[in-house]
């Protein structure tokens, strides 16, 4: 563990030792499994469970397993999209039927793609669908007539969770529920305007996530984004995110006015991370330019490793469908690829920081290097610059 200490006001606010937060990455729980989340919290940071794609019961199980590994603060991240196809069905089965009826060319293309790669059809074995969500459109908390995301929020409010993070969308309906339970709320923003909306929604902390980040990300790189967001929401604390994989990146975020860092890709190559070893190796071996933004796997802009499946979509002439249609269709493609061991075709959301990562290591070692590297970078910057009155 790190022997040196650096702290910001964020540490006291979140009850953590170091202002380093594990990004709540999804991938149906594989990117941020309990072992990784607990390891980051135990090291002195904040571990965050990526709940996207988990059924309410799977999310409850993940929280409880994490709690069995650490008593320190933990968070849960969900996506709360405000813009998905409103007419989409509420179950995977219903969306699959709509796909066959309304988008036969896209379905036929994916079928040809699977034949090309010799994949046998496999369907995701739950009915979870990302839906338009607010607190006013789904009945009473705890009731099964609420959609999947609303039920996920119910679970979080019932369990031992200290921080709720909205990785996408408007968290305004969740804020009062969280604050009633003394839970802090984070909101991700890819632009100053979006940060102002998150502040108006009542969140406690803004995550300014730059273009360099993996997964669903915006269009502004973090060097211009972070100071703009800091200025836009002051005095609210801001976490810098996107392209940060070592202490120099954390120090840069602090220099730009952030109170800490939200880090994802660097922990995808942690030993405790549960994504497939082939995908970890893509990140270790990949260059920054190998991770590009497409709508191929979810229908929303997402940075991931550009594999043969993405290249085939690029060459198809077909525009990806909106979420959740594209996501449901490609979730089944991912399941088929995984069943065949073809993780070279499976989605692999990761950021441009991949080009800086060289090996798979324990999370505690990664975290320790982040802490010591930040302190060294701050000290070196101070010693390298001369100041005069």
N- and C-termini, Cα separation: 39 Å
Percentage of residues in helical conformation = 40-55%
Tell the overall outline.
Answer: globular
Please state the average pLDDT score.
92
Strand content: 5-15%
User: What is the helix tally?
Assistant: 15
Radius of gyration: 20 Å
Widest β-sheet, arrangement of strands: 1-9-8-6-5-4-3-2
Order of helices and strands: HEHEHEHHHEHEHEEHEHEHHEEHHH
Number of strands: 11
Task: Find the structural class using helix and strand composition.
Answer: alpha/beta
Structure explained in plain terms:
With 389 residues, the protein is an alpha/beta fold. 41% of the residues lie in helices and 13% in strands. The longest helix has 22 residues, at 363-384. Strand 2, helix 3 (56-69) and strand 3 form a beta-alpha-beta unit. The protein has an eight-stranded parallel beta sheet. A three-stranded antiparallel beta sheet has the order 7-11-10, with no helix packed on it. 52% of the residues are buried. Helix 2 packs parallel to helix 3 and helix 3 packs parallel to helix 6 (148-158). The protein has helices at 9-14, 34-43, 56-69, 92-102, 104-116, 148-158, 175-180, 192-200, 222-233, 247-255, 265-268, 277-285, 308-316, 325-339, 363-384; strands at residues 20-22, 47-50, 74-80, 163-169, 184-189, 205-209, 215-216, 238-241, 260-263, 291-294, 302-305. The protein is built from 15 helices and eleven strands.
What's this model, at a glance?
This protein is α/β, with parallel strands linked by helices and 389 residues long. Helices cover 41% and strands 13% of the residues.
């Amino acid at each position: 563990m790190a022997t040196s200490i650096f702290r910001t006001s964020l540490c006291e606010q979140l009850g953590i030792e170091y202002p380093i937060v594990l990004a709540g990455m999804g991938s149906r729980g594989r990117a941020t499994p309990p072992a990784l989340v607990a390891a980051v919290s135990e090291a002195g940071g904040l571990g965050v469970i990526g709940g996207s794609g988990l059924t309410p019961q799977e999310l409850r199980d993940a929280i409880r397993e994490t709690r069995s590994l650490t008593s320190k603060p933990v968070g849960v991240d969900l996506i709360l999209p405000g813009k998905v196809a409103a007419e989409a069905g509420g179950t995977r089965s219903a969306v699959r039927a709509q796909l066959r009826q309304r988008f036969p060319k896209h379905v036929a293309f994916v079928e040809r793609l699977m034949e090309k790669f010799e994949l046998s059809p496999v369907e995701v074995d739950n009915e979870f669908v990302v839906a338009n969500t607010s607190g006013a459109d789904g009945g009473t908390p705890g009731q099964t007539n609420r959609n999947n995301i609303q039920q996920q929020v119910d679970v979080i409010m019932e369990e031992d969770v200290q921080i709720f993070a909205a990785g996408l969308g408007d968290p305004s309906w969740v804020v009062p529920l969280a604050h009633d339970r003394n839970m802090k709320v984070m909101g991700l923003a890819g632009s100053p305007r979006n940060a102002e909306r998150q502040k108006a929604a009542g969140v406690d902390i803004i995550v300014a996530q730059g273009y360099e980040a993996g997964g669903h990300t915006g269009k502004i790189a973090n060097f211009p984004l972070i100071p703009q967001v800091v200025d836009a929401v002051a005095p609210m604390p801001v976490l810098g995110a996107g392209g940060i994989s070592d202490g120099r990146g954390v120090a840069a975020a602090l220099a730009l006015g952030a109170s800490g860092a939200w880090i994802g890709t660097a922990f995808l190559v942690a030993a405790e991370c549960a994504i497939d070893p082939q995908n970890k190796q893509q990140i270790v071996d990949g260059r920054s330019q190998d991770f590009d933004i497409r709508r191929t796997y979810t229908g929303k802009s997402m940075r991931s490793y550009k594999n043969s499946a993405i290249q085939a979509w690029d060459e198809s002439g077909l525009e990806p469908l909106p979420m959740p249609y594209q996501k449901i269709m490609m979730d089944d493609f991912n399941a088929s690829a995984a069943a065949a061991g073809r993780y070279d075709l499976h989605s692999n959301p990761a950021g441009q920081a991949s080009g800086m990562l060289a090996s798979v290591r324990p999370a505690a070692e990664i975290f320790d290097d982040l802490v010591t590297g930040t302190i060294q970078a701050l000290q070196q910057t101070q010693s390298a610059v001369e100041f005069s009155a």
